[in-house]
Amino acid sequence: MNTSPTTSMPRALPPEHREQLLKLAREVSIPQGTRLFQEGAHADRFWIIRTGTIALDMHVPGRRAAVIESLGHNELVGWSWLFGPHAWHMGAEATTPVRAWEFDATAVRTLCQDDPAFGVNVFQWVGDIVAHRLRSARTRLLDLYAPYGSGGMR
């Protein structure tokens, strides 16, 4: 199996921008059970999963954190680093051992500012991911609550 970053990197970025981004990557191993970040903490990095699974969760007062979504191979973990105020909207925990590329958020934001074409593509890539996750969350909410809705539409 080829583990070259360019073969595993999400294809949403043009090849030249993938290469620029990967120059900032650091390979990391994350043990199962490791908290990557907590809701409300400063978002100073992000990851692209190579292997393993990471659960996104939300704090529920008086209860265990509620898992919102599980992410795996080639998926972006964290988008709060790109949008002010750069604070995590959720928490994240490795549910299996994970290998990932880790990126310093400040370095990537600086590259986005220095190279506007790169910045547009990164914003589009992350924006598409956020939009997809929002649609998925809405569908899950409908699946959960549709039978208990306020009645039929007229």
Describe the protein in words.
The structure is a single chain. β4 and β5 form a beta hairpin. The strands form 2 sheets. The protein has a 4-stranded antiparallel sheet with strand order 1-8-3-6. Strands 2-7-4-5 form a 4-stranded antiparallel sheet, with no helix packed on it. The chain has one domain (10-146): Jelly Rolls, CATH 2.60.120. The protein is globular. α3 (105-114) crosses α4 (116-145). It has helices at residues 5-8, 15-22, 105-114, 116-145; strands at 25-30, 35-37, 45-51, 54-58, 66-71, 76-77, 91-94, 98-104. The chain is built from 4 helices and 8 strands. The termini are far apart. With 154 residues, it is of the alpha+beta class. It comes from Streptomyces hokutonensis. Residues 9-111 form the Cyclic nucleotide-binding domain. This is Crp/Fnr family transcriptional regulator. It holds the Pfam family cNMP_binding.
Give the arrangement of secondary structure elements.
Layout: H1 5-8, H2 15-22, E1 25-30, E2 35-37, E3 45-51, E4 54-58, E5 66-71, E6 76-77, E7 91-94, E8 98-104, H3 105-114, H4 116-145
Antiparallel strand pairs: 1-8, 2-7, 3-6, 3-8, 4-5, 4-7
Helix pairs in contact: 3-4
Q: Which key phrases capture this entry?
A:
cNMP-bd_dom_sf; Jelly Rolls; four-stranded antiparallel beta sheet; Crp/Fnr family transcriptional regulator; Env_Response_Regulators; alpha+beta; 4 helices
